[in-house]
Write a structure and sequence with these properties.
By secondary structure, the protein is an all-beta fold. 1% of the residues lie in helices and 51% in strands. It comes from Flavobacterium orientale.
């Protein structure tokens, strides 16, 4: 269901119908389009504790009056030497594709213990019984990538009508970490259109043409983005396992599907984009917004943004302004951007690149380093920044431990308790912005770092919205410690007491310079422009002040 409103919510619009099943012929499923996956995995049971047999019986999957029905039935059934008490169907499409849009109009069951799913797997998945396995099955799950367009019945903590979309990747160790959801009205009685829009840049999920979740990792590699190879479709109802207990009164449940449609762009495009504009939008101490727009006959425009040694690639529908937030920048620093526009076919705008320059603002916030944990432990610790931007507070944490893999970060609000998944902005640094805060109000947050084999939770840190502070521990006579600020090539420290050591840190707590030689003049010409923390030691006492390098 490609509408004008849904076009504005995705980055690439796909318009050419390349594969579909409208389910127009009554009886068995179309065997030229679908494969029944019935082979049990090794061990004799399906994954996730599921208790069904998938069959090729017409009682479990059939077409009638324009609809495909997949039916889960309570009945004893023996196959491959194993008897189970429930049957269902799991269909693989015999069509695989790279990038495009999938629309599936379906009515799903909501019975307790059922797990209806519309999803995708990499064509290269090594899974016995799958249609593509014999010829292409070279890659284990989740390295093949999994895109869950719609799942229901496995989120018991969510309200009625909640449907979930998710991505499974090596970076999440296959766990349901990258996911979003929304409420579907009158679920179980009404048909809804479940969609995924998959481009080289991001994956967006939609319900009835309205986008509700986009996956777009800052770093795209084989671990976070195994979505650069062909995938195929799966339709099924699983029983039990993570879907919970099946009531003894259960007899059967059905999923009805009106159509499955896949769109791509087939037009051979030789025309380059026109009317390309690029301007600077909102600027904070750590982000710069770039506003991009161009038109192209193909309906889509790709943008490449280069600054320093960094590149951001994105896309948007033709003629629709694209807002790109460049993250993780240093305060009071000028950044130069080189921005190019092309279409998806690679035709370049005639006057590429456009050049922009913007300077980030100063910081209003607090930062620090700690090792304390309220759950688990930290071998090295973590850095943190609370930064007020207008009426919002951007909270950034960096995990310093290097012995933890598959890390995902969640922000914890203390009162009332709420958990938010944070964005991995780079390396082991995670960020989340809480909006509409009151200047002067006190907030308290912690971060849970989940990783392979466990989790560690920081202590709760209290911050006054709008406060501008620095790390200060056992400060000695601050009036006896001063320096000219900003600094250029050298920092000259004026003090009436002896200095034992001087250290300079980034705002995230990374040590970039240390001097234990008694001196009041320290060379800083090799430091990049920006804001730092200057720590001066006298015995066991330390004082820290902010320092700007120009």
């Amino acid at each position: 269901m490609i509408t004008a409103s849904s076009k504005a919510q995705v980055d690439v619009v796909y318009t050419d119908l390349v594969w579909s099943d409208e389910f127009e012929t009554n009886g068995a499923i179309n065997s030229t389009k679908w494969h029944h996956q019935t082979q049990l995995p090794n061990g004799g049971s399906w994954f996730n504790g599921e208790v069904q047999h998938y069959t090729n019986l017409i009682s479990n999957s059939f077409v009638n009056e324009g609809f495909l029905t997949i039916k889960a039935i309570k009945e004893p059934y023996t196959n491959q030497g194993v008897t189970k008490q429930y049957t269902s169907a799991r269909l693989n499409s015999k069509f695989a594709f790279l990038y495009g849009r999938v629309d599936i109009r379906a009515k799903i069951p909501t019975n307790q213990g059922t797990w209806p799913a519309l999803w995708m797997l990499g064509k290269n998945v090594n899974e016995i019984g799958g249609f593509f396995n014999a010829e292409f099955g070279t890659t284990n799950w989740p390295a093949c990538g999994e895109i869950d367009i719609m799942e229901h019945g496995i989120t018991p903590s969510q309200p009625a009508g909640f449907i979930q979309s998710a991505l499974h990747t090596p970076s999440s160790f296959g766990n349901t970490v990258n996911h979003g959801g929304t409420i579907a009205s009158n679920l179980g009685n009404d048909f809804h259109v479940y969609s995924v829009n998959w481009s080289p840049f991001q994956i967006t999920f939609l319900l009835d043409g309205v986008a509700f979740y986009t996956y777009n990792p800052a770093v795209k590699n084989a671990s976070t983005w195994p979505f650069d190879a062909e995938q195929y479709l799966l339709l099924n109802i699983a029983m039990g396992g993570v879907a919970g207990n099946i009531p003894s009164s259960f007899t059967q449940a059905s999923m009805e599907i009106d159509y499955v449609r896949v769109y791509q762009n087939l037009q051979v495009d030789t025309e380059a984009p026109t009317n390309f504009t690029a301007t600077v939008g909102n600027v904070t101490s750590s982000t710069i917004e770039l506003l991009l727009n161009a038109t192209d006959n193909s309906g889509n425009v790709a943008y490449s943004i280069n600054y320093g040694d960094q590149t951001i690639n994105t896309a948007n529908p033709s003629g629709v302004e694209k807002s790109v937030i460049v993250p993780n920048l240093m305060p009071t620093t000028t950044y130069n951007f080189s921005i190019s526009a092309s279409d998806v076919a690679g035709n370049q705008y005639s006057n590429n690149p456009l050049l922009l320059s913007a300077t980030t603002t100063g910081v209003t916030g607090c930062s620090g380093t700690d090792t304390e944990a309220q759950q688990g432990s930290f071998s090295t610790g973590y850095n943190y920044i609370f930064e007020t931007i207008g009426n919002d507070v951007k909270i950034t944490f960096e995990l310093l431990d290097t012995d933890k893999v598959g890390v995902v970060a969640f922000l914890w609000r203390q009162t009332p308790f709420t958990e938010y998944q944070m964005t991995n902005v780079s390396g082991s640094t995670y960020s989340y912005t809480i909006t509409n805060q009151t200047i002067g109000a006190t907030i308290s947050y912690a971060v849970k770092f989940a990783y392979a084999g466990g989790l560690s939770v920081t202590k709760y840190l209290t911050y006054v919205v709008g406060d501008n502070c620095s790390l200060t521990v056992n400060a000695f006579e601050l009036d006896k410690f001063s320096f000219q600020n900003p600094v250029t090539d050298f920092i000259n420290i004026h003090t009436t007491v002896a200095i034992d050591k001087v250290e300079i840190y980034t705002l995230l707590g990374k040590l970039v310079l240390s001097s234990s030689t008694p001196t009041e003049s320290i060379a800083v010409k090799n430091l990049a422009k920006g804001v730092y923390l200057l720590a001066v030691y006298q015995g066991d006492k330390k004082s820290i002040k902010k320092m700007i390098v120009k």
